[in-house]
Amino acid sequence: MKLKYLVKIFILAIVFINSYCYSVIDQTKPVLVTGATGYIAGVLIKKLLNEGICVHATVRDPNDAEKIKYLKQIVENTNGSIKFFKADPLTKGSFDEAMKGCELVYHTASPFNLHVKDPKNDLLIPAVDGTENVLNSVNNTSSVKRVVLTSSVAAIYDNNRETHAKEAGLTESDWNKKSSLINNPYFYSKTRAEQKAWDIAKAQKRWELVIINPSFVIGPRINPNSTSESYRIIKQLGNGDVKWAVPKIGFSIVDVRDVAIAHYEAGFNQNAKGRYIIAAHSTTMFDMAQTLLKKYGKDYPIPRWVLPKYIAWLFAPWIDKSLTRSFIANNVDTPCKLDNSKSIHELNIEYHSLEDSMNDFFEHIFKS
Ligand code: NDP
Question: How far is the CA of 37 from the centre of ligand 1 (A)?
Fold first, then answer.
């Protein structure tokens, strides 16, 4: 008899300690998503709406009806609801109104563009100051319990060569220490933004920070007009830009639908904690193109030959303005090695196959 009571007390104590340590997010409360018109944000919002959640969606220009039309259409087939708010990552206090009553905040808004003229103003400032601005609003909003920030594997490494430092690939404990405003500025902006987020999160105790570090994202889009770099890169494989050959640039890729599930789990899974590498396959630009041949090879100029590394190195600046010779040296014929085991064990992610992600993405880019 005594033992029975002791066991009951023990279980209650565990439940109490657990609920004290980790927040339970109430699904009936609104959830904020910044940068709602983005590629990743669109698929995440669709997932939240399907779960019946009320989404507070921030956009820089909610009056651009064309830009948000597709989000309004998605809501109609779900149990969820959506409310739009005007907010710019660079305007102080801009997110206060949208955040009211939210327990969970997803911060996805940040430029993903490898072709910028002014890396400081076009990448670094919107990424870092934008993160600081959103998190200052979080500090001022007592309802918020958890923030999920969309960082990137760019905050973990600078180039593929570095990813070979560990046998099973880099993990969440690794940080990008090499990128700068001159070398890989997009990677630098993501590293600095995530560091800023950790600094702000560690200075308080009310809310917790969970980071999603996706690798290169592919897969079917929701936003027909998104400007994400993901489209530009995959579009080249079918529009004739690289019709003869592509180099074996090592890529780690992940499907946008898996990235959305990872965000959902990071928000609502009580035990989600720290950083999560969300990466499905280590592949190359050439191998990605080959997955398309069976279905689309007859109708589209998909590259069938490998561009040798030395030619890519020689002509890099003419092939693509964002390609530098050091990028070719460090990433071509060198696979990207990342350890995704934490995402599988703690967020229960079951990754799509490379073929499915590529073919579904291609279908959306060229046929919708
Ligand atoms: P998108 O460009 O499609 O979305 C980003 C959104 O951020 C925009 O739609 C925009 O929304 C908002 N935004 C706010 N300020 C700016 C600004 N100054 N410049 C550009 N956009 C701004 O990108 P993704 O969906 O691909 O990326 C979303 C997040 O995921 C980013 O943080 C990116 O770094 C990260 N990521 C992306 C990967 C990928 O392969 N796509 C891989 C790893 C990380 P609005 O106009 O509504 O305000």
Answer: 8
Beta-bridge partners for 54:
81
| Mean of per-residue pLDDT scores for the chain | 93
The model's confidence at residue 224, banded by pLDDT at 50, 70 and 90, is: confident
Binding-site residues, ligand 1, Cβ < 6 A: 35-41, 59-60, 89, 108-112, 126, 150, 152, 190, 214, 216-217, 226-228, 230
DSSP E strands in the chain: the ranges are 31-34, 54-59, 81-86, 104-107, 146-150, 208-214, 216-218, 245-246, 250-255, 274-278, 281-284, 305-306
Q: Sort strands 250-255 and 216-218 into parallel, antiparallel or unpaired.
A: parallel
pTM score: 0.93
pLDDT (0 to 100) of residue 20: 47
Burial (Cβ within 10 Å: 0-12, 13-18, ≥19) of residue 335: middle
What is the maximal distance between C-alpha atoms in the chain?
80
Beta strand 281-284 pairing with 250-255: antiparallel
Orientation angle between helical segments 354-367 and 229-239, nearest 10 degrees: 80
CATH class of 29-367: alpha beta
Q: Whose CA is nearest to atom 34 of ligand 1?
A: 112
